Amino acid sequence: MHTITLINGDGIGPEISDSVVKIIEKSGLDINWDIQTAGSDVIEAEGSPLPQRVLDSIKKNKVALKAPVTTPIGKGFRSVNVQLRKSLDLYANLRPCKNLPGVKTKFDDVDLVVVRENTEDLYAGIEEQIDVDTAHSIKVITRKASERICKFAFDYAVKNGRHEVCVVTKANIMKLSDGLFLESFRDVAKNYPQIKTREILVDNLCMQLVQKPSQFDVLVLPNLYGDIVSDLCAGLIGGLGVAQGANIGLDYAVFEPVHGSAPDIKGQNKANPTALLLSAIEMLKYIGEFAYADKIEKALFKTLSQGEKTCDLGGNLSTTEFTDKMIANLE
Ligand code: ATP
């Protein structure tokens, strides 16, 4: 039996993780969930939103499913998500974006994958108050991190039958930092002659994405552009409620939706569990449980195709009603 760390998060986290755990259980797959609390709720008792026991659990189990966790603003705590990625060296953020049956969007041919560098860039957290009217944030780009994320993108392309990897930068302006990312991409690309390459500036990419997203296959980006572009791509396929993600390193992997803890709809039984469910489906593939992944994915597609949806997708089902419909469709 697999033992997997489950961080059920806060805000809508517990509602959507209950749903996903129930769906996986009803699919017939036995998972031993090592449940770990994190976020604002544990600060008072444990002094940190990300206690060491959570990291220890992931280190032991190697794989985690994570619902959104809120980092309180302005209380001196580092973002839980950033800390988790750094501590476990989860250097690749993977966000596949593909249309879902039954979810109507402007385009019906989106099938791309965003590969975002996860450890440096402006997220390195190096900031300096120069004087009361001036602040600096340092953008850090290294050859080592750039090469390994580009390699990850090409390896992903090879393993998943993708044809092209497109590197996204603003190297015409940030000639040194983005220039280094681009140079690393070109170096790594030489080892993958079977994969086509493309280079694009991030502003042009945004325009192209909202005009003709089907022209893109795998995108590889430094951290900040990756963050922004992956939300844009989530919008292309129906919004945050259906956008899955994963943070992957050499030793550990944490699967989590793109969205945050949505405090505005917390406790209202309204949240869409699909993004966490799709992340869990990727997780099942990662641990080799392809048959269960397939079974759950088929049930999801069937449920959405039947028009059974939560409010964010224009439907009228509550989280628990959607979960029950999903379970009824597991064959
Ligand atoms: P963060 O900064 O943590 O990403 P945020 O406030 O920017 O958080 P979210 O918490 O992701 O963003 O919420 C953005 C909007 O999307 C909110 O109005 C929220 O209700 C909605 N939303 C997010 N996730 C879901 C979901 N799973 N189901 C339904 N609505 C959602």
Spatial strand arrangement across the major sheet = 2-1-3-12-11-4-5-10-8-9
Class per helix and strand makeup: alpha/beta
Major beta sheet, specifics? 10 strands, mixed
State the CATH architecture of the largest domain. 3-Layer(aba) Sandwich
What does this molecule look like?
This protein has 331 residues and is α/β, with parallel strands linked by helices. It has 2 domains: 1-98 and 237-331, Isopropylmalate Dehydrogenase (3-Layer(aba) Sandwich); 106-218, Nucleotidyltransferase, domain 5 (2-Layer Sandwich), CATH 3.30.420. It has 11 helices and 12 strands. The strands form 2 sheets. It has a 10-stranded mixed beta sheet, sandwiched between helices. Strands 6-7 form a two-stranded antiparallel ribbon. The chain is globular, with a radius of gyration of 20 Å. The two termini are 22 Å apart. 45% of the residues are buried. Bound molecules: adenosine-5'-triphosphate. Residues 12, 240-241, 259-262, 264-265, 271-272, 275, 312 line the site of adenosine-5'-triphosphate (ATP).
